[in-house]
């Protein structure tokens, strides 16, 4: 498998973690978002959406990180990242969607570029926008968590796979994590595992 990735892409980061947790051999192919390589002809021939990540498999190319995570879950079952119980599985997906649908899209690079380049928002205002929506989202996530070591239970699930990249970006934009002790503790615990730390942006071949 080839994963088309950018070291600071939250969505690609999710897939890197899952591939590591499941011990799936793969090759990382860097696509530089800052240089808009994801919009170039070479990449859009593989992924017409022009977004990261994309996973190239023997069956073809699959895009959208949550679709990739679900496919990996269904095809590589030795290390499950979803519970067996349907209700618990739905709870994990609920948490994932709260990140991938409600927090990430309004804070991703495309939106931040539009704020800067089209609306002439300065860096301080742009960062205020980012922190506001992360904090609002984290308030909800914190309330959804119990007292287990990971998001849902005693081992990582797709919820943790989605949470860790979002916290990384929150810290990068200097979000105060003090009001979110459960999220912060899970983030630290996950990063003590090689599957998470090896997937971290600073440990990627294309890290800048």
From TrEMBL:
Entries under CDD domains matching the protein: GST_C_Zeta (cd03191), GST_N_Zeta (cd03042)
* InterPro entries with a match to the protein in the record: Glutathione-S-Trfase_C-like (IPR010987), Glutathione-S-Trfase_C_sf (IPR036282), Glutathione_S-Trfase (IPR040079), Glutathione_S-Trfase_N (IPR004045), GST_Zeta (IPR005955), GST_Zeta_C (IPR034330), GST_Zeta_N (IPR034333), Thioredoxin-like_sf (IPR036249)
Q: Which GO terms describe its biological process?
A: glutathione metabolic process; L-phenylalanine catabolic process
Keyword annotations from UniProtKB, A to Z: Isomerase
Record-annotated GST C-terminal domain positions: 85-208
Whose protein is this, by species? Pseudoalteromonas amylolytica
Limits of the GST N-terminal domain:
1-80
Full protein name:
Maleylacetoacetate isomerase
Q: GO CC annotations?
A: cytoplasm
A Gene Ontology molecular-function term? maleylacetoacetate isomerase activity
Cite the Pfam families for this sequence.
GST_C_2 (PF13410), GST_N_3 (PF13417)
- State the similarity comment: Belongs to the GST superfamily. Zeta family.
Gene3D superfamilies for the chain: 1.20.1050.10, Glutaredoxin (3.40.30.10)
